Amino acid sequence: MELEELKRYLRMDYEMETEEEQDLLKFYSLAKIHIKNQGVRLNPEDPDMVEQFNQACAMLTEHWYDNRQSYRIGNQSYEIPYSLDSIVRQLKYCYGGDAE
């Protein structure tokens, strides 16, 4: 996913500093690694799988970008949204992806 597509998905329609854009791309890169480390083996030949993989990475990027503090005061937590967990499960078990 390219930067402009990622910003559109995350509804970031404002002008960002170069450092913010670099942070966003870094979070996206780390999200791809994180999803693959969850046992997802992306099959680039399967457009449905690629679409869901990109969505999962964008969701995780948004979560990490919005929750950059190292700690939180109060009862709110930094748990990853359940919908992301559901997509990762689908990626792992609904597609017969090859190891990348």
Automatic annotation (TrEMBL):
Pfam families the record matches: Phage_connect_1 (PF05135)
Identification of the protein by name: Phage gp6-like head-tail connector protein
Chain ranges passing through the membrane: none
Matches recorded under InterPro entries: Phage_gp6-like_head-tail, Phage_HK97_gp6-like
